[in-house]
Amino acid sequence: MASRTTLILDDEARAAARQLARRYGCSVSEAMRRALIRQRDAEVGVPRERRRERARALRRLIGLFEGNDAVAEIRRLKAEDAGF
User: Fold this and answer.
1) Global pTM value
2) What dihedral do alpha carbons 62, 63, 66, 72 form, nearest 10°?
3) 28: closest CA among 47, 43, 41, 9?
4) Residue 35 burial (CB < 10 Å; 0-12/13-18/19+)?
């Protein structure tokens, strides 16, 4: 559930929020939400459920790439690109 909060930003904070928004390719509000979550995670740690989600995603990626020869894949992609 989302709720509205009003923040009063000085020029430096407003510029930082706009810069993050450009970097993330999103609205200033979304950039501020992301920044808050990242700062919270840095200061107090990532919540347990989020860590579990990350671990599941990593295990899935490892499974998807198991048996993949990275050198051969890069060679194949470079060969495909050579035609362009």
Assistant:
1) 0.58
2) -70
3) 9
4) middle
